[in-house]
Each structure stands twice: as structure tokens, then as C-alpha cells.
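Handoff note, outgoing to incoming analyst
You'll be picking up this chain. Sequence as last confirmed:
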Amino acid sequence: MHHGIITTDADGRPQRPPGGEFIDRYVFPGGELANLPRLLTEIARCGLEATAVEDLRPHFARTLTLWGDRLEANRAGVTAAGGAERYRIWWVYLAGMAHAFERRRLSVVQIVACKPTAAGPAPASMDARASISAEHGLACVERLTAMRECRRQEIGSAAPAEPE
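Most recent structure output, in case you need it:
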């Protein structure tokens, strides 16, 4: 299962989160967001089938607003624990991200993907999860592990060679 924030950019270019230098410096240094087609392509490249995709964007702006409200309501405790600067960083971040979700610049998706088995393709939807056998569930876990390794190897092959 993949659950993450994506860009709504139709061109598929990886993008930095909205907020530019502020986000890059204080919240997610080096962060990059993909779009949904890119995620689905990468899932397929690793031999998995996406069996369910759910867009959670309509709910997430409200979620971020509520988190910001809770942060503000607990300002004294948060400031005591992490400092005034950290409080301000997260207050601005939550407000800015809520705005980005409201304006449809970002979305949150949940993707369920599994490896097809000898018995046939992966289940067609989340409703089919009750019929997934333990064997099929294990195959999904094994394939997700292989997918992570596939990604690690890609990153490793792009890294500069170690000096001898």
C-alpha cells in the first residue's frame, strides 16, 4: 500500500512541494512530489498491479486545518517542548498546505497494489480484500519488498562510483 501526497501536475514532472525554499529549508529538505500517473507507472515497472486507488484530497484540507487548530490550541506546550521557531514553522506549513489542497495543487492518494498470482490477477478492488488468501497477502508483501529493493538499486546505480 502506498499512501502519500502527490502533485496534480498533468505533465508528470517531479515537483518540489508548494512553499519552495521555506518547505525545502525547514520542513522537508530535498522533498519531491510525483503525480499519480508516475506512481502507477513505477508500481507497474516493479511487476505489481494497482488494485485500488483512492483520492483523499477532498478531506485533507480540512484535516490540515484541524491539525493547525490543535497546534494553536496547544501553543504553550508545543513552544515549551520544541521552541517558538519550530511552532511557527509548523503553523505556517499546516496553513500553507491546507491552502494548496483547497486549491487542488496537491492531493493525497492511497494505492493498493499486489503481485498477480498463478491463480490469476490481483483482486479488482478493496472490496475483494476479504477474499485474498494468506498466500496472496504474503505474495503482496514479498513483492513490495522487491519493489523497495528495485528502487534502492536504481538509486544506487545513479550514485557516483566509490573510489577504489
